[in-house]
Amino acid sequence: MTLQYPTIADCVGNTPLVRLQRLPGNTSNTLLLKLEGNNPAGSVKDRPALSMITRAELRGDIAPGDTLIEATSGNTGIALAMAAAIKGYRMLLIMPNNSTAERKAAMTAYGAELILVTQEEGMEGARDLADRLQREGRGKVLDQFANGDNPEAHYTGTGPEIWRQTQGQVTHFISSMGTTGTIMGVSRYLKEQNPAVQIIGLQPMEGAAIPGIRRWPQEYLPKIYQNERVDQIIDMSQLEAETVMRRLAREEGIFCGVSSGGSVAAMLRLSAELENAVLVAIICDRGDRYLSTGVYDVPAA
Q1: In this structure, are residues 150 and 48 in contact, taking their beta carbons and an 8 Å threshold?
Q2: In whole angstroms, what is the distance from residue 125 CA to residue 36 CA?
Q3: From 73, 259, 263, 271, the catalytic residue
Q4: What contacts 13, CB < 8 A, 6 or more positions away?
Q5: Which of 70, 132, 261, 293 could disulfide-link 244, Cβ–Cβ 3.0 to 4.6 Å?
Q6: Where does the Tryptophan synthase beta chain-like PALP domain lie (predicted)?
Q7: How far apart are the C-alpha atoms of 26 and 35, rounded to whole Å?
Q8: pTM (2 decimals)?
């Protein structure tokens, strides 16, 4: 009998769902975290990255050897660089120059080429430049912000996994919002199973800088976003997100990034108001890609 070994692409998804033990305190609620840092390239973005390329291939929109272009703040770029390496594409990534050194290094390790825009231009400027390069014939923009294959990855993957792992008992789903692909796809699936499931989105407070999530100006709001799929939006401060992020590492052994700390902070707020609930939050990535920022250097209280 010939053994069938998986490829690296087969290892995307089916991530663990683990229970918080110390942070929740004395509660009747169950607080669960979906560890998306366990994906091969280290984040939840592995799912839509592989989905966008694979589905574009199936439609005949792209073929191996083509150049792909994407604006990214980090995790999507790393995931797309991995997916492009798997499938044989040239990957051109455009990102703000204040993205962490670890993220830039990971993208180039996979063979991607980087174009940096200024921090002032930000993601809006990166998106505008990606569109311009496509108009100039430099490659094909996948456009995670308007590409239905982004939320589809979560509708067919992340959502069903959460439903199965909680045996249909999930009552609240909490996710940071960047491109909004995760929350759109998971919301669609969970609401189809049980319309009473509450979908909670997280955005930064005015002036807060939380990597990976945005408070989008109306003209740049992702086209995949549908407001009716989110029951509640919580504004999160940078301080609260970073504080809970560090507590996750030191009190739970869960090493993650700032947006994930924000999601758990929101989860803890909600839990204080609920009884007998099953809350699930997305841990978007691992904390090692933020170490150079010094965000983990604050001494334990």
Answers
A1: yes
A2: 28
A3: 259
A4: 39, 46, 47, 157, 158, 161
A5: 261
A6: 9-285
A7: 23
A8: 0.93
Burial class, 8, CB count within 10 angstroms (exposed 0-12 / middle 13-18 / buried 19+): middle
Q: Please tell me which residue, 97 or 40, carries the higher pLDDT value.
A: 40
pLDDT single digits (tens) 142-176: 999 899 999 999 999 999 999 999 999 999 999 99
First to last CA, the chain: 57
Active site residue 259: yes
Asked if 284 and 44 count as a contact pair (C-beta separation under 8 A), the reply is: yes
Which one from 45, 104, 140, 191 is the annotated catalytic residue? 45
CB burial of 127-149 (b: ≥16 within 10 Å; e: otherwise) equals bebbeebeeeeebbbbbbbebeb
Question: How many Cβ atoms from other residues are within 10 Å of residue 206's Cβ?
Answer: 8
* Residues 39-53 pLDDT 10s: 999 999 999 999 999
In one-letter notation, the amino acid at residue 136 is E
| Least confident range of 97-111, 139-153, 273-287 | 97-111
